[in-house]
Design brief:
two-stranded antiparallel ribbon; DNA Binding (I), subunit A; binds zinc ion; 118 residues
């Protein structure tokens, strides 16, 4: 039996495979926070999941209006924060990603190889 990417990405989710698939298809497998295209590559497909806009920890409902396609990094960055709207959540997640990117580039990134600039 082939592995289902949808079920694989929903292992820890209270959303059933079928519910998750409907949300991912509705959102065209694109992360609603950063725009990552879950159909662009296998690696992208592996990180797609369904996010509760209002987190379960804050009594967010398992209702399609509260569920969006999301990549794992955005899901982690968003955590259990509560926002007034999806737009506000998207702006904050993107800002946090950029802050993390700057820290990573300053401290963790490999120096650019000399051959890359040749
Ligand atoms: Zn994302």
């Amino acid at each position: 039996m082939p592995i289902s990417l949808t079920s694989f990405s929903l292992v820890d989710s209270p959303v059933t495979v079928e519910e998750g698939r409907k949300i991912l298809e509705r959102d065209d497998y694109v992360c609603r926070y950063c725009g990552l295209d879950g159909r662009a590559s296998f690696e992208n497909a592996l990180v797609m999941r369904v996010d509760f806009v209002v987190p379960r920890a804050h009594k967010g409902k398992k209702n399609p209006s509260n569920l969006v396609a999301c990549c794992t990094p955005c899901n982690t960055i968003k955590g259990t924060r509560v926002y007034a709207s999806l737009d506000e959540a998207r702006a904050d997640v993107r800002a946090r990603r950029e802050e993390l990117r700057k820290v990573w580039q300053a401290k963790e990134a490999r120096p650019i190889a000399k051959s890359a600039s040749a």
